[in-house]
């Protein structure tokens, strides 16, 4: 049964208060229990798309940017950074959990800064994907292959200056965490109904795992793998479904095919690659869980799961997004989505709780 609208603000405030208390509990409990996936990482390197982009697209000729208000309204200082949210991303919360600084955007760093950083870098680029052609309709972006190329450049031009011996560098890379969160845009831009779903998933997985192998050969040993989101349950899709607000199960099934293959591939690579470990993040299941008991109906949760915070009046258009002229909602924490394609800081914080505290979202392969 859905709560009366008059009661929702009261319950939401109580709900948010409880979550903030959990944040304190997390920091305290870390001192008392084993850290997930071992911890003690020297750095966090991020490969991904707009879910975890920390500002790389700011420096690229593309239409896909978020370096303007109302983005960043709840980030440190209330400043838009190029993150596609009102605040922190899941990559930011991963860094916080492991006691690392937030990984800065690679494209925004000077050569001197690159030489001095040894706690990680973010290479993620909004609108891009695993395939080189993905997202290029909207301008320049960094595909997974290009991001890995930039990481190799970081090793050759910067890290080799900071770590004087090959052994020191190898130890640093082996004790770093590599987050991978990319692949959904390949479905958005390149998939169509004339393509066999299994064939597309197999080709995408082949390219994806090729880049994982490249990173492993470069020295990466610990991988945080985020699977693909339920594309059929995002506002830009929900508004066109019947009944309105219900998920497109066909789109979700497509993504599930890839996610299942990905999980199996990681288990295979775990056996194949020496001293290499994978933490599998079921982001798909987590985002479905935010909607409530069923993905086939409009959610009855306290948080709005069908409309974005920005724009506050959403017309459901496939290409409608949050712009500098958009008016955002007054309480982003009351929404799962900040814009039609990306979650709010609150949703990202709840992900961190599910992954690191409850340990139901993230599992070691």
TrEMBL record:
<keyword id="KW-0964">Secreted</keyword>
<dbReference type="InterPro" id="IPR036514">
    <property type="entry name" value="SGNH_hydro_sf"/>
</dbReference>
<protein>
    <recommendedName>
        <fullName>GDSL esterase/lipase At2g03980-like</fullName>
    </recommendedName>
</protein>
<keyword id="KW-0443">Lipid metabolism</keyword>
<keyword id="KW-0442">Lipid degradation</keyword>
<dbReference type="GO" id="GO:0016042">
    <property type="term" value="P:lipid catabolic process"/>
</dbReference>
<dbReference type="Pfam" id="PF00657">
    <property type="entry name" value="Lipase_GDSL"/>
</dbReference>
<dbReference type="InterPro" id="IPR001087">
    <property type="entry name" value="GDSL"/>
</dbReference>
<dbReference type="GO" id="GO:0016788">
    <property type="term" value="F:hydrolase activity, acting on ester bonds"/>
</dbReference>
<comment type="similarity">
    <text>Belongs to the 'GDSL' lipolytic enzyme family.</text>
</comment>
<keyword id="KW-0378">Hydrolase</keyword>
<feature type="signal peptide">
    <location>
        <begin position="1"/>
        <end position="27"/>
    </location>
</feature>
<dbReference type="GO" id="GO:0005576">
    <property type="term" value="C:extracellular region"/>
</dbReference>
<dbReference type="InterPro" id="IPR051238">
    <property type="entry name" value="GDSL_esterase/lipase"/>
</dbReference>
<keyword id="KW-0732">Signal</keyword>
<dbReference type="InterPro" id="IPR035669">
    <property type="entry name" value="SGNH_plant_lipase-like"/>
</dbReference>
């Amino acid at each position: 049964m859905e709560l009366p609208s008059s009661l929702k603000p009261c319950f939401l405030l109580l709900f948010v208060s409880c979550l903030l208390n959990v944040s304190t509990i997390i920091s305290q409990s870390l001192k008392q229990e084993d850290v997930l996936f071992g911890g003690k990482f020297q750095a966090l390197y991020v490969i991904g798309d707009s879910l975890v982009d920390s500002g790389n697209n700011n420096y690229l000729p593309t239409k896909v940017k978020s370096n303007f208000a109302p983005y960043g309204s709840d980030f440190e200082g209330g400043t838009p950074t190029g993150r596609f949210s009102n605040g922190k991303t899941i990559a930011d919360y991963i860094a916080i959990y492991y006691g690392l600084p937030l990984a800065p955007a690679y494209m925004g760093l000077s050569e001197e800064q690159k030489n001095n950083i040894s706690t990680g870098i973010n290479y993620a680029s909004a609108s891009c994907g695993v395939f080189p052609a993905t997202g290029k309709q909207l301008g320049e972006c960094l595909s997974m292959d290009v991001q890995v190329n930039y990481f190799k450049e970081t090793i050759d031009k910067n890290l080799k200056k900071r770590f004087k011996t090959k052994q020191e560098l190898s130890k640093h890379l082996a004790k770093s965490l590599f987050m991978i969160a990319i692949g959904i845009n390949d479905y958005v831009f390149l998939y169509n109904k004339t393509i066999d779903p299994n064939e597309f998933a197999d080709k995408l997985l082949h390219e994806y795992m090729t880049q994982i192998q490249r990173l492993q050969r470069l020295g990466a040993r610990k991988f945080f793998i985020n699977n693909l989101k339920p594309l059929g349950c995002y506002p830009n899709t929900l508004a066109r479904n019947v009944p309105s607000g219900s998920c497109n199960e066909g789109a979700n099934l497509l993504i599930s095919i890839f996610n299942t293959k990905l999980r199996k591939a990681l288990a295979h690579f775990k056996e194949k690659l020496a001293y290499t470990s994978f933490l599998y993040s079921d982001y798909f299941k987590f985002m479905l869980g935010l909607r409530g008991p069923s993905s086939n109906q409009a959610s009855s949760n306290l948080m709005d799961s069908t409309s974005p915070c920005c724009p506050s009046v959403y017309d459901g258009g496939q290409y409608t997004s949050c712009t500098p002229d958009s008016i955002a909602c007054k309480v982003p924490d009351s929404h799962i989505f900040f814009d039609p394609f990306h979650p709010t800081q609150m949703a990202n914080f709840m992900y961190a709780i599910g992954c690191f505290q409850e340990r139901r979202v993230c599992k070691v392969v």
